[in-house]
Write a structure and sequence with these properties.
Length: 406
């Protein structure tokens, strides 16, 4: 019986109730012989949480925490990220990435409450989540002991896990009928592994949970108006909502219209490519609407600088650096740019497509019809453009002249 930390007395495990963490819970009890506290964060998984407590106890947990973190998740993690318009590799809205720092934060709070000397997670040694969890753990306690079973045990295949589960009487939730793994919260649901490892195969329709197939979505479009204040969505169709309520509402509307499906072969932090399939209906609508309000309220140069930071901000979230000084620095700059982002966007939802059809701001609009009109105006002298063009073309003209001499 090999123990990485023989003096560990109590471990707080981030527990989802799936195959991996169920086996990990039992493995920690068997290998470490210490108390194990199972912690599950309610981030909007729905009925997935119902059997968690009984299942954890039956598998050997000494104590179980199930904490409702939905409002904190959307208010303090999702919304700041959406103020940045963050998107990874042009497609992924970072639904799993942004959940991990909050889970780790609460896990460390529970470790302090329980007097635990170690924490554990179910992330594999190939994936991104191990980095996201552990960078957050060390942020809160640099001396914490981290037990990462996937980097310790010899259960190196899915079949080995199944055999261990059967030997220890652990129910096996992954079946031939649904041969993939998933992770769900209020922002999205992700799918990976199993049949999705064939990069040429289209994901089966019965895999999707949050969205209707666009082909089967309503034949009539739906228009949705979303109000923003300081870059945060505060109301839908005139109705004020809390952050979690608002995102849940948009998830339902977007799901009905088949909005937010993404199939991406992404680059993991550890260096390999991995296929992820995502459903992010509410988040897709939010990002489109937020960008629309920015178009009418944000200064051109401020937007240019902020947009140049999106890939770096997204990379930091994806790679687990939520609690880093560089992410906090970027957030400060981004949040300053959002003070003017106040207004309403009108988006059209139709068969998998979400696009802006209107935007307005009563307080911060930079659109001036007197200047922008193509009709006769009294405020813009079009002849001024001649000098503007000549000055801006000077370096190009000089380059052409010098090359002509050569």
């Amino acid at each position: 019986m090999a123990k990485a930390h023989k003096d560990v007395k109590k471990i707080v495990l981030a527990y989802s109730g799936g195959l991996d963490t169920s086996i990990i819970l039992k493995w920690l009890k068997n290998e470490y012989g210490c108390e194990v506290v199972a912690f599950s964060a309610d981030l909007g998984q729905g009925d997935e949480l119902a059997p968690i407590r009984d299942k954890a106890i039956a598998t050997g947990a000494d104590k179980v925490y199930i904490d409702d973190l939905k409002e904190e998740f959307v208010r303090d993690f999702v919304f700041p990220m959406f103020r940045a318009n963050a998107i990874y590799e042009g497609h992924y809205l970072l639904g799993t990435s942004i959940a991990r720092p909050l889970i780790a934060k609460r896990q460390m709070e529970i470790a302090k409450i329980e007097g635990a000397d170690a924490v554990s997670h179910g992330a594999t040694g190939k994936g991104n989540d191990q980095v996201r969890f552990e960078l957050a753990y060390y942020h809160f306690d640099p001396a914490i002991t981290v037990v990462a079973p996937w980097r310790e045990w010899k259960l190196n295949s899915r079949q080995a896990l199944v055999n261990y589960a059967r030997k220890n009487g652990i129910p096996i939730p992954v079946t031939k009928k649904r041969p993939w793994s998933s992770d769900r919260n209020l922002l999205h649901i992700s799918f990976e592994g199993g049949i999705l490892e064939d990069t040429w195969a289209e994901p089966p329709e019965n895999m999707y949970v949050l969205t209707k197939a666009p082909e089967k979505a309503p034949n009539k479009p739906q228009f949705v108006e979303i109000e923003f204040k300081n870059g945060n969505a505060v109301a839908v169709d005139g109705e004020k909502m809390s952050p979690a309520q608002l995102l849940a509402h948009l998830n339902y509307i977007g799901g009905e219209h088949g909005i937010g499906r993404v199939d991406l072969l992404e680059n993991r932090s550890v260096g390999m490519k991995s296929r992820g399939v995502y459903e992010t209906p509410g988040g897709t609508i939010l990002r489109e609407a937020h960008s629309a309000v920015e178009q009418i309220t944000m200064d051109r140069e401020v937007m240019r600088i902020r947009d140049s930071l999106i890939p770096e901000y997204a990379r930091q979230v994806y790679a687990g650096y939520w609690f880093s000084p560089e992410r906090e620095m970027l957030q400060t700059l981004i949040d300053d740019s959002q003070k003017c982002v106040n207004g309403v966007a009108r988006v059209k939802l139709y068969k998998g497509h979400c696009r802006t059809v209107g935007r307005k701001s009563e307080t911060n609009s930079l659109f001036n019809l007197d200047f922008a009109t193509f009709e006769k105006d009294q405020v813009f002298n079009q002849a001024d453009a001649t000098g503007f063009i000549k000055i801006n073309s000077l370096r190009l003209r000089i380059r052409s002249l010098m090359q002509g001499k050569k």
